[in-house]
Write a structure and sequence with these properties.
about 120 residues, 4 helices
Length: about 120
Amino acid sequence: MDRIHIRDLALRCIIGLYPEERTNKQDVLINITLETDLRAAGNSDALENTVDYKTIKLGILDFAENSRFKLIESLAEGIAAICLKEQRIQSVTVTIDKPGALRFCRSVAVEITRNRT
């Protein structure tokens, strides 16, 4: 299976359990790997034969920036579901880093992989 990577998508959203996290947007860093067959796109050089990753990115931005999850696990599930709406995507891996979540750590991250069923 071929892969498309969306790397280091930085955005701000409401995420967390504590009162200050419920009112102030925080930085998150998102990495996504989309598994798909890219042969037709490689042979045709045509957008209609591949995954339009700009459209997926815009959907993720809209979803995440307007979300109010307590857990990054829930945010990751929502992002995976957005990606799997594209029929060409067979599998998606979503990694979300929350910088500053723990003192003395660069970030805390959650990674999930979901497959088309």
